[in-house]
Design a protein that fits this description.
Blueprint (H helix, E strand, L loop, with lengths): L1 H15 L5 H14 L8 H12 L3 H7 L8 H16 L14 H9 L1 H39 L1
Helix pairs in contact: 2-3, 2-4, 2-7, 3-4, 5-7, 6-7
Length: 153
Amino acid sequence: MKTETIKKQNGFKRLFNLKGDPKMIARGFALGSFVGMLPFPGFQMLISATLATFLRYNRVAAVAGVFNTNLVTGVFVFAFNYWLGKKILGIESSFRLPDHINLNFAKTVMDAGSDVFLSLLLGGAITGIFAMFLGYYISLSVLTRKNRMKYEN
């Protein structure tokens, strides 16, 4: 657990030490934060990097942003997204999410049917919008403050 915390801290340090326009780095991180909420574990980094390339956002920041969902948080995030999407769509389902997230998660969801996938997708899009805005404004604030301090010294 301590090693994972240290890795996350180092990852955030690298994110905030990226060279480039703070807005483009923040946009990349926000994009990754959005994609990280979608029900595509194992493919989120590829999706995020591809979209960042097309949008000309910072790819490294976009890939870092997807880690808002990981092997530890994914179970809780996807459970909430599923519940939210199911409530909004008015779907009754006995489907239970797996106890852990891995590459088989996508297959499990697809095998469960379109109602389950749509519930996860809608819930993920809604929470993704919140994660996107939070990710953008927090990362932009930190990057701008860091740049300002660098130029003042």
